[in-house]
Hints:
Layout: E1 2-5, H1 39-53, E2 57-61, H2 69-81, E3 85-90, E4 106-111, H3 116-123, H4 128-134, E5 140-146, H5 156-165, E6 170-177, H6 192-202, H7 205-208, H8 216-223, H9 233-237, E7 239-241, H10 266-274, E8 278-280, E9 283-284, H11 285-302
Parallel strand pairs: 1-2, 1-7, 2-3, 3-4, 4-5, 5-6
Antiparallel strand pairs: 8-9
Amino acid sequence: MLSIEITRECPLHCPGCYAYGDNHLGGGVTLRELNDKRGDDLVEGVLGLVRKHRPLHVSLVGGEPLVRHRELSRILPVLSEMGVFSMVVTSAVIPIPREWSELPRVTVAVSVDGMPEDHDVRREPATYERILKNIEGSCVNIHWTITRAALRRESYAEEYVAFWNNRPEVKYVWVSVYTPQIGESASEILSREDRQAIVERLKPLRKRYPKFLFNDAIARGIQEPPRDPSECFFAKLSVNYSADFRTQVEPCVFGGQPDCSQCGCAISTALHGMRDVKLAGPLTIGHMIRGSIAVGSAMNRLRARASKPARWRPAPAAPSTEGLVQIDS
């Protein structure tokens, strides 16, 4: 899997946005300080990374990727023809080109952080009113990053899922839980008890609302996230680039130092929750993924120009003290 921050630009200033954090890219430079691409350079940059890594799936994020909708309208048909699944993750602050919905293997995911009284404050100017206008005639998925506001009333989760389930433009609705950085103490963070409560409220909804994607694996992943990147299958199976197409985002799309013990990423929690699901006899999905990673590591050693993510490399050995003479002072 490949993720590319295709632009540093975004008209929103959402609280808790990891992409614009000081340590998102490791602390040396921030996303807003990068020299991003436009026009032909952007198109060729994205396609070049896809040809290099040959992913099954590529996520095009930002910033706000719809700021580069003209370039995306050139990129997405090519990716579709290449047989690559692609997803544009957007706030829908800009109208979504309707022709994208006709492209095979292309998904547009719209981030909607709760009901209007919460979302419109967090993501203005990408308000409900504007989103509904900008997705008209398109086919989109709705992505809800759950924060503490969802626990305000018992009916909150069902109100959200019911609203979007009934929209004709919506294909699926899925959820994440806010993922903090290590040491962060934001109001968006859910406690362990909060996670348990929200899972219990979400479980009954999957039977009542057919567009709502929520299963036992996601529930387990939310309640018992991976402890660190070495346990996160999503981190191991993805490579992530920022807007200059050279700077890599590590150890996962969140960058910086994500608190994996409080991870709520939809893909990470789903993969982590599926790790013990049996495929045949004692063989589990976890065994299959670890085997795939081992094959990928071996292939990387054979390909001189291949990217070798830091999370795939063994930790450096401690320096040996054998043969050193200790001098007492």
